[in-house]
Amino acid sequence: MNKSTNFWTRAKKFFKVLGPGLITGASDDDPSGIATYSQAGAQFGLSTLWTALITFPLMAAIQGMCARIGLVTSQGLTSTLKQHYPRLVLYLMIVFSFPAIILNIGADIAGMGAVANLVFPKIHAVYFTVAFTALLILFIVYLPYKKIVAILKYLTLAVLLYILVPFFTKPDWGLVLKRTFVPTLRLDKDFIGILVAILGTTISPYLFFWQATMEAEDIQAVSRQVMVNKRILLCETESKEAAKEEARKRWQRLISVFLKKVTADVNIGMLLSNMVMFFIILATGTALFANGGQKIETVEQAAKALEPVAGSASYWLFSIGVIGTGFLAIPVLCGSLSYIFSETFGWQGSLDKQFHQAKPFYGVIIVSLIIGLLINYIGISPIQALLYTAILYGVTSPIIIAVILHIGNNKKIMGDHTNGTVSNILGALTFFLMTASAIFLIYLQFES
C-alpha cells in the first residue's frame, strides 16, 4: 500500500511539473492531424512510421527555442517580433496565420461533430458542432487561467487512447521495427505529398506562438514575486546596489532552473505527440492498408473503417480520442490567435485576466470559434479547410522558423541563453525541410 501511494505521489508531482510543453505537444495531435496520420496509414501502410523518429528532434528543437525566447524575454513571440523586427514581417505573419488558424479550428470542430454523430447516430452532427463550440466558449472565457491549464493537462490523457488502438489490430511487430528504423522512400507524387502533409501538421506555426506565450505567462507570475522580494531586500539592505545585485543573481538562478524544467517539459510533450502519431499510423496501417487499403480523408471515415476490421473497442477508443483532442487543441488554436492580435495591437489581454478586463482578447477567441463553426456551413468542406490550412502553414512556417533561429542566436535579445550548436543544426534542418515542403506543396497545387 505504501509503495502504491509513493508511486502515485511521485507521478502527481511529475505531472504537476509538466505544463506548456506537454499541452503544446498533445494539442498537435488534433482531429486534423489525426486525419492526416490515418490517411498515411490507410494508403501506405507502415511505410511512413519512420517519420515519427525524424520529426521528434525537429519539433523539440524549435519548440525548445520558442520556450526559451518566452522565458528570457518574458513576452510572447509576437511581442519580440514587434520590438526587434520590421513591421512587415509581423503583418505578413498575421495575414497568413489568421485564415490558417480559423480554417484549422473549423476542420477540428467539424471532425468532433462528425465523430460524435457516429457514436450517437440519432443526433445530427450539426447539433454537436454547435454544442461543442458553445462549451468551448464557456470553458475558455469563464474559467481562470490556472483551471484552464489544469484541464488542458488532463485532456492530454485523451491522446494516450491512441497508443492502445494498435493492440486491437494485431500488427507484425518485426515489420513494425523494420519500417520504424529503415526509412521507406517512394518518388511518386502521392507518397511525397503525404510526407509533406505529415511534416506540415506536426510542425505548425501556431504552436510556436502558444509555447513562447505560455512560458512568458509562467515567468511573469514568478517575476512579480521576485519584484516583491526585491523591495524587501531594498528595505533590509543598507546598500541599494547590493540589494539590486542580489536580486539580479536570484533572477538568473531562477531562469536557469526554469530552463532545465522547460527543456524536460518540451521534450516530453514532443515525445508524446510523436508517439501518438506513430501509433495512429500503426493502427490504420495494420488494420486498413492490410485489408485492401482505403481512401481515408476524415477522422470519422477512419473511425468507421476501423470498427469492422479491428473491433468495436478500437472504434470507441479512436472516436473518444478525437473528441478529447479537439477540446484540447481548439483552445490552443484560438488562444494562439488571440495572443498574436493582442501583442500586435497592444491590447492588455491574457488568459489569466477575466472577461471584463480583456474584452478584445476574449472577443478574438469568441469570433474565431464562431467563424470556425460557420465555415463548415458556407460551402467549405473540412477537406478543403485542411488543404487551405496546409498551404498557408506551409508558406509561413519557413519564414517564422528563420526568424526564431535569428532571435535564438541574437545576444541582444537572449543574453547568455542563445542557441547551442545542436539546436542550431536541428533548427536549420527544420528550416530546409519546411522550405522544401512548402515549394513541393505549391508545385502540387499547380500540377493538379
| pLDDT averaged over residues | 81
CATH topology: Amino acid/polyamine transporter I
Structural class: mainly alpha
Query: Roughly how much helix do the residues carry, as a percent range?
Result: over 70%
Count of DSSP strands: 0
Count of discrete alpha- or pi-helical segments spanning 4 or more residues: 19
Radius of gyration: 22 Å
Order of helical and strand elements: HHHHHHHHHHHHHHHHHHH
Biggest sheet features: none
Assembly state: single chain
Summarize the structure.
The protein has 448 residues and is mainly alpha-helical. It has helices at residues 2-17, 20-27, 31-44, 51-73, 77-84, 87-119, 125-142, 145-155, 161-164, 173-181, 189-202, 205-236, 240-287, 299-310, 312-345, 359-374, 382-408, 411-414, 421-447. The protein has 19 helices and no strands.
Keywords:
single chain, 448 residues, mainly alpha, Amino acid/polyamine transporter I, 0% strand, transport, transmembrane, Nramp family divalent metal transporter, symport
Describe this structure in words.
With 448 residues, the protein is mainly alpha-helical. It has one domain: Up-down Bundle (Amino acid/polyamine transporter I). Helix content is 80%, strand content 0%. The protein contains 19 helices and no strands. The chain has helices at residues 2-17, 20-27, 31-44, 51-73, 77-84, 87-119, 125-142, 145-155, 161-164, 173-181, 189-202, 205-236, 240-287, 299-310, 312-345, 359-374, 382-408, 411-414, 421-447. Helix 7 (125-142) packs antiparallel against helix 16 and helix 15 crosses helix 16 (359-374). The protein is globular, with a radius of gyration of 22 Å.
